[in-house]
Amino acid sequence: MVGSFSVRFGAMASKCEVRLAASSQAHADALAQCAIDEVARIEAAFSRYRPGTIVSRINDAAGRDWVDLDSETEALLGYADTLFEGSEGKFDITSGVLRRAWDFRQGRVPAQAALAPLLELVGWQRVQRAPGRIRLPQAGMELDFGGFGKEYAADRAAAILKAAGARHGYVNLGGDLHVFGPQPDGSAWMIGIQDPRDAGRTIASIPVQAGALATSGDYERFFEQDGKRYCHVLDPASGFPVGYWRSVSVLAPLAIAAGSYATITLLLEERGLDFLRDSGLAFLAVDHQGRVFNEKRSHMGSASGLP
Amino acid sequence: MAATRILLAALALPGLVQAENAPDKSTLSVKYLDYQDSQPNLDRIHVRSPAIDIAVPVAGVWLLRASVVSDLISGASPRYHTAVSGASRFEETRKGVDAAVTRYFPRASVTLAAGRSGEHDYVSRFVSAQASFASDDNNTTWLVGAGVANDRINPVNDAVENEHKRVVDLMAGVTRVLTPADIVQALLTHVRGEGYYSNPYKYIDQRPRHQRQHSLMLRWNHHFGGSGATSRSSYRYYTDSNGVDSHTLLGEYVRPFADGWTVTPSLRLYSQSAARFYFDPVYDTRFGPPFPPGYSFTDGRDRSADQRLSAYGAATVGLKVEKEIGADTTVDVKLEQYKQRGEWRAFGSGSKGLQAFSARSIQVGITTRW
Amino acid sequence: MIRALIIGVAMVALAGCAMQPVQPWEKGMLAKKAMSFETDKLEAKFAEHTYSSKEGASGGAGVGGGGCGCN
Predict the structure, then answer these.
(1) Domains with residue ranges and CATH for chain B
(2) Looking at this predicted complex, what is its ipTM?
(3) Is there a contact between C26 and A299 if contact means CB atoms under 8 Å apart?
């Protein structure tokens, strides 16, 4: 008799879960291990903090040397370039330095004098690239894979589970999901989308047989001051957080794609809705006034609880 | 469009997109067929056929399949047209074995198969290969296939001795997903054969030694979200160098009910033209039956009085009932009634003078997965 | 005649080109057994053998399979 079991673990500063069909919890734990190992590998490989990783070596060599790239990193950097072009320059993986000015724990808005020198270090268009190599032209510039690292890990974990023969289940890394197969009885998994203003509530339930759902929102890391919310998604030109959308959820074949579309929509602010509609993907977006926009694209299923 | 470029770029990242095709469970199927055909006032052929099929996936990328079918055939078959007095009684056992190996790749699959079918006067051996290739979005799949069969014929009545036949078939086709509830397929088949095609047990039967056949098969499956039912329709156009042109229209409606019951009624309509060399039951005034008018013992012309090559229409009504027992086992029963009539031919007049042909069949089977 | 058959295949190949491609998460219904073109193998074998031995036409759905002395 086969049921589905959850294997929970912590990674990428989030609560993570692998859900799959297995004959027992012990069996599920064993099957999920290869996926958990892959998530750990990606987190370690692309960490900015651990010395010796490809990202820290590129960042340390900023303003000095070219760094050789492995094929995985080179492919991801090529993808980051596509995101930069496709977001009118708003999705910029060199913009991570801006976070040095924002203290989300203290909840203080930085002065312009603090932001100005950091803004000098932002600009993917200035990064020098050659086949198999990369160079950051100015000391202090940094690359940050945080914009799609979690989603990429979800896709890789799902691919590894599928290659191992798993046909039912999903990988959930802190709300970014890749469903690699329906429930053991063939029915879809019902995935809840969190209410951006109430962590205990969901605003919709989406049936997903296979595919990925990723959400970007202003509620993951933020502080509020004088009635205004400051979240962790920063515009690379101004250094200030975006504020038009409360959350954007996108359904796509891969979590990395779904997450990219969601984040770019946040970054494009009011222009994000046209961008989402042009993508041809199913989405659910909540703007700063709480208005909900959604596009079903055939069988996205019923969304319960929508106003 | 910049927006879709992002999705395409993500799909192109290495190591993210996987194969979806290889099945994950082994399957064993056992089925038994009981078939009886007849013409008015005379039962003709009775066939009892047990069959077994087993499919085992290996390492997530291979599928091994094998099947054995045994036919016990008995009864009477007319020597010419539907002449009752000329019926010949016989009993025959035929056994067929075949095996196939499939290898699955991320966007493709390849299958190699071989088999042998034998009865004491006829042995057929075949090998075949088939491959499928899917598009990046898995909505289009191209199919190609080729097969060769070598037959050896040694009829018990010694009408001929050690005759042989070789048939090559080629197939190409495409499957397309049109909507979340519709999938269609078109298959084109070309067959060419050389050798002994005549039926040695029929009087006055000589068929061309070179034959060519073409067929186009169109299939469409549609799912009804509300009832959970599926309609399966197909049309086949067939034409061959003997002058037989036929149309086959098949419709099935698969309707699931509660508790694992599924009922599938089906209807098949068939119509064919006569072979060029088929002659009606009108006989020569000098020699009498079975000789056609103007028959010469020495002209070596192709002729046949086989009812199968006449012009007629036919219809089959069928009903299949399946029940799931537990999560992994299904039992099924299928009943079919077939009738063939000269006057039912569509697109032309049917052959005259033949008795109506009918057949009924019942199949029972059990399938289990593990 | 052959040309008509090839055009038939081409039409199916191009069918739906103008429609929105179906996304992976929309393929739930297509995954049902009844929606596949691979029917019950033994049932298909019986049907092909029965019809090809009683009618003038044969095949159309695949390659291989061999012949028999069906009389």
Answers:
(1) 28-369 (2.40.160)
(2) 0.88
(3) yes
